[in-house]
Write a structure and sequence with these properties.
Blueprint lengths: L8 H9 L4 H9 L5 H7 L5 H14 L2 E6 L2 E6 L1 H20 L10 H9 L10 E9 L8 E9 L2 E7 L9 E5 L1 H9 L4 H6 L3 E5 L1 H6 L29
Parallel strand pairs: 3-6
Antiparallel strand pairs: 1-2, 3-4, 4-5, 6-7
């Protein structure tokens, strides 16, 4: 981790936080991911070797702790790490307000489905097991089809995401382009708007198909007010 050689507390904090992927790894940990593979599913473009390195660094500087549990390893935030949750939410709100429209390179189905699975509304999910198949009509290969298995019981609700057929019958099938579902998730358009425009279709058991939008609480950023003028801040992307 580099040093800036300044006494400014922002500089001292950034000596820890400004390495590539560090804040996104902390985003996953403070959001509840504790196992290595859970964290990796939130940062799918990060190599396992680099993730291992970052986790060791974060443990060394005191932002996370490593515990053995049930034959595996848990990574949990320390008080200092947990306090970054407010920082991350502030950065996220700033990003929604001031960073321009998402480019095609920003549309990641892995992150979208991982985000959705941890934002289910337990009070709205049908009792028992419900299997949702999501088909992205503009993608090919394994990225085009995703299964979400929702389980609800009196003890609570849970969800799991698979990029392979888990072998259960499908109750509801959702078909759309990836950008359409990202826009809905981020709150820039609604389910009903996409359906009326013919850009999204839902098929399956009648009651479940109609109730589908209510199963999920949308992204944390849907209620962030956008500026009245278009953003002039642009994200940096590699020049091809």
């Amino acid at each position: 981790m580099g040093e800036y050689g300044q006494f400014c507390p922002i500089a001292k904090a950034m000596e820890i936080l400004d390495q590539r992927w560090t804040m996104l790894v902390m985003r996953e940990i403070v959001s509840g991911s504790s196992r290595f593979n859970e964290i990796r599913r939130g940062v799918p473009k990060m190599s396992p070797a680099l993730l291992s390195t970052r986790l060791r660094q974060l443990q060394r500087v005191g932002l996370i702790e490593r515990h053995s549990r049930d034959g595996g390893i848990d990574y949990t935030p320390t008080p200092a790490g947990q306090e970054l949750k407010d920082v991350l939410e502030t950065v996220g709100r700033w990003g929604v307000r001031w960073v321009g429209e998402l480019g095609e390179q920003d549309l990641d189905p892995h992150l979208l489905l991982w985000d959705m699975h941890r934002r289910i509304d337990p009070s709205r999910v049908p009792a028992g097991r419900t299997v949702l198949l999501i088909e992205f009509t503009d993608l090919a290969g394994s990225a085009a089809r995703w299964w979400m298995i929702l389980d609800s019981s009196p003890a609570g609700a849970s969800a799991d995401v698979c990029d392979f057929d888990p072998g259960f019958g499908v109750d509801v099938r959702l078909s759309c382009k990836l950008r359409t579902l990202v826009d809905i998730w981020m709150g820039t358009r609604s389910w009903s708007q996409a359906q009326r425009a013919g850009e999204l279709s839902v098929d399956g058991q009648r009651g479940a198909a109609r109730a589908l939008p209510g199963w999920f609480q949308l992204s944390l950023w849907t209620d962030v007010p956008r500026p009245s003028e278009p953003s002039t801040v642009s994200a940096l992307h590699p020049v091809s």
